């Protein structure tokens, strides 16, 4: 058997898009090897309700692990349960390199005694293992790596493997957690919402991002208005802005923040420091609005407008509303 | 508190890289090297803990060739107390192999807390710290942006997408450090002089056979040159047309 296990990430009882992306990536390996994709979802209760969605996106079997101690993230118990299942005869494990997946993947790999290929953007099955490409050096160098260890443990970059409708009427199997999930040594005492953005930066097809050119924190309202006009947009920020406390650190896009690649990235009052470009250069279409025509962001932008972001944004917001109407 | 911080020496990222003739490495000609960004935050956080307590010791550890001694000296010039080089020539991309070599050293140190940057900025797999914790049987909390202590309990904050978690864990423990925790200081002249006299031990690393191989390195495809479509609010209708008809994102 060449079956692949995928981590169906959830938070607060909801299946996350990252979970469907992990299934899509696992499908790539399983289809090349002629195996099945099995997904595993964790939560307090009622998680079986998400099995249909996982099945509709390509999972042949969905394991549902319910326990009160999965109300918050519980990576010790999650990784122990995943690793025990993988040891029962899987050839690979896939999760998405989200905040949670980045935490889970190395735990699982270590429990299996194998290395990890992280944050990969392509996957293929080669003669001696799984070959993957992985952006490193802040996105400036693409590394091609081959995992010769078995099982192969991989995390995939958010947005790199899109969920595909692939009806498989996945069967649902309840599964008991390995060990006692209440006994994890690390306790989450609180999970709090950090900002009001409806969509997450890793999941939004459109990102509207603001920098120092907005002049003050209150002007981020203009960025939020444009995001609202698109309807499918999240709001990001530069490091200068998060360092100044205009936006939370979790909104920072760049070398030391989030790495994103949305369909559309709109840079508002952002000059394009190398540190910022490292986080968004793989966006499919880039728009830049900046008053300095020599700003480095214009070298990268597909479409640039030179001018004052504070006067241009309200006009653009109205135009987008009209186009969407 | 007895603290270990594991460091990696990496090139400065603010350059345009070239690929070496081997096709499996970057051309190091003319590159400057320093500790990886997140490792710098970890060193600073560790030093602040010992300064605040007025007690304790920070040991910095790096796996690599003799060039890592310079990086270890820098950490000691910031205020770390001693250093260990796990001597290993050649690049390693297999996180499990590197973690095994580091864990063998760390288990002898009786550390209360072992710190790593949340990932190295070059190979960027973000796995070694967690794998060391698993190998040592210690709890681990990854990518933390705050760290405080209440007796022998570490209290931490960790950023998620659009949310954050507050966590607690008894020591000893492993943590990996995100930015936001403490901005690394610049070494003072006094610190640089003092670092020269601090102990730096070099010993061979025991790195097992690697099962993640680096086949190739390449530069990403260049984006087509950018295009400025106009100035001021008057350019908005043309932008909207292009987003609709050319980019098809609206």
Provide structural commentary.
The complex is a heterodimer of chains A (325) and B (250). Chain A has helices spanning 17-33, 51-56, 75-87, 99-112, 220-230, 239-243, 274-280, 297-300, 309-324, and strands spanning 4-7, 10-11, 14-15, 37-43, 61-66, 92-96, 116-120, 122-126, 129-136, 141-147, 152-156, 171-174, 186-193, 206-210, 233-237, 264-268, 285-290, 303-306. Chain A is an alpha/beta fold. In chain A, strands 7-11-6-1-4-5-12 form a seven-stranded parallel β-sheet, with helices on both faces. A five-stranded parallel β-sheet of chain A has the order 15-14-16-17-18. In chain A, helix 3 (75-87) crosses helix 4 (99-112) and helix 5 (220-230) packs parallel to helix 9. Chain B contains six helices and 13 strands. In chain B, helix 3 (95-106) packs across helix 4 (128-136). The radius of gyration of chain B is 21 Å and the shape is globular. Chains A and B meet through helix 4, strand 7, strand 9, strand 10 and strand 13 of A and helix 3, helix 4, strand 7, strand 8 and strand 9 of B. Strand 13 (186-193) of chain A pairs antiparallel with strand 9 (163-170) of chain B, so a sheet runs across the interface.
């Amino acid at each position: 058997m060449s079956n692949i296990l995928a981590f169906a990430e959830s938070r607060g009882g909801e299946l996350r898009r990252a979970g469907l992306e992990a299934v899509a990536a696992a499908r790539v390996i399983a289809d090349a090897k002629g195996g099945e994709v099995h997904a595993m979802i964790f939560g307090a209760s009622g998680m079986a309700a998400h099995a249909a969605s996982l099945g509709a996106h390509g999972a042949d079997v969905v394991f549902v692990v319910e326990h009160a101690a999965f109300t918050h993230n519980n990576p010790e118990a999650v990784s122990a349960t995943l690793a025990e299942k993988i040891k029962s005869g899987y050839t690979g494990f896939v999760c998405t390199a989200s905040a949670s997946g980045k935490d889970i993947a190395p735990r699982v790999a270590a429990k299996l005694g194998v290395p990890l290929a992280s944050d990969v953007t392509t996957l293929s099955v080669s003669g001696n293992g799984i070959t993957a490409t992985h952006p490193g050096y802040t996105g400036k160098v693409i590394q091609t790596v081959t995992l010769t260890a078995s099982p192969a443990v991989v995390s995939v970059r958010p947005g790199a493997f899109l969920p595909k409708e692939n009806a498989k009427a996945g069967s649902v199997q309840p599964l008991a957690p390995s060990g006692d999930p209440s006994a994890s040594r690390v306790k989450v005492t609180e999970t709090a919402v950090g900002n009001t953005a409806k969509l997450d930066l890793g999941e939004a097809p459109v990102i509207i991002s603001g920098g120092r050119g907005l002049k003050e924190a209150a002007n981020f309202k203009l960025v939020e208005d444009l995001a609202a006009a698109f309807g499918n947009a999240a709001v990001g920020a530069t490091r200068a802005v998060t360092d100044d406390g205009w936006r939370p650190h979790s909104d920072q896009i760049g070398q030391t923040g989030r790495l994103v690649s949305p369909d559309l990235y709109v840079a508002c009052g952002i000059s394009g420091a190398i540190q910022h470009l490292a986080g968004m250069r793989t966006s499919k279409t880039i728009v830049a609005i900046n008053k300095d025509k020599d700003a480095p962001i214009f070298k990268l932008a597909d479409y640039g407008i030179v001018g004052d972001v504070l006067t241009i944004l309200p006009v653009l917001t109205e135009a987008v509303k009209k186009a969407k109407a | 508190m007895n603290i270990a911080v594991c460091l990696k020496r990496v090139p400065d990222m603010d350059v345009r890289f070239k690929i070496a003739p081997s096709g499996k490495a970057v051309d190091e000609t003319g590159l400057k090297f320093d500790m990886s960004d997140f490792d710098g935050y970890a060193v600073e956080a560790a030093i602040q803990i010992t300064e605040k307590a007025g007690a304790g010791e920070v040991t910095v550890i790096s796996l690599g060739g003799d060039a890592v001694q310079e990086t270890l000296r820098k950490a000691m010039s910031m205020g770390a107390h001693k250093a260990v080089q796990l001597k290993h020539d050649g690049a390693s991309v297999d996180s499990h192999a590197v973690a095994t070599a580091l864990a063998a050293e760390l288990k002898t140190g009786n550390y209360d807390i072992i710190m790593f940057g949340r990932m190295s900025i070059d190979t960027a797999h973000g796995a070694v710290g967690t794998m060391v914790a698993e190998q040592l049987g210690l709890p681990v909390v990854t990518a933390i942006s705050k760290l405080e202590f209440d007796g022998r309990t570490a209290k931490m904050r960790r950023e998620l997408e659009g949310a954050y978690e507050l966590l607690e864990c008894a020591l000893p423990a492993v943590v990996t450090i995100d930015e936001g925790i403490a901005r690394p200081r610049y070494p003072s002249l006094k610190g640089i002089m003092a670092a020269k006299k601090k102990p730096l031990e070099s010993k061979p690393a025991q790195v097992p056979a690697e099962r993640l191989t680096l086949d190739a390195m390449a530069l990403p495809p260049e984006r087509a040159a950018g295009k400025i479509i106009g100035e001021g609010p008057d350019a908005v209708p043309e932008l909207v047309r292009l987003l609709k008809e050319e980019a098809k994102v609206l």
